Amino acid sequence: MLMSSTAFSAELTQTCKNYYAEIDKFVQQLAANEETKALADEIMENYPIAKNKHMSLPKEAQDRSCSKEAAELQEYQQMMAAEG
Question: How is the chain classified by DSSP, letter by letter?
Answer without folding.
Answer: ----TTT--SS--HHHHHHHHHHHHHHHHHHTSTTTHHHHHHHHHHHHHHHHHHHTS-HHHHHHHHHHHHHHHHHHHHHHHHH-
